[in-house]
Structures are given as C-alpha cells and as structure tokens.
Design brief:
The protein is mainly α. It is built from 2 helices and no strands.
C-alpha cells in the first residue's frame, strides 16, 4: 500500500523526488568539502 502511494500519487512522487534531491545534495557537499580539505592539507605541507 505504501509503495503504491509513493510511486503512484503526485504527492508520493514529489516526496520521492525531494528525498533523492536531498541525498544528492548531501553527497555533493561531502565530496566538495572532502576535496577542499585535501587541498588545504596539501597547501600546508612543506615541499
């Protein structure tokens, strides 16, 4: 029943889309900050 509502109704599809977008933004932020931290650590190392 819940799966039918999630994939079959407008509200369910918008909720699913919102969840996917939030997860995507979280992954992007994780990768972004991980890259910036690595750049900062490389800049601080001598040589």
């Amino acid at each position: 029943m819940a799966w039918k509502l999630l994939f079959g109704s407008d509200y369910g599809l918008m909720s699913l889309l919102s969840i996917v977008i939030v997860i995507g933004i979280g992954i992007w932020l994780y990768l972004f900050f991980r890259r910036k931290i690595a750049e900062d650590e490389n800049r601080r190392r001598p040589g």
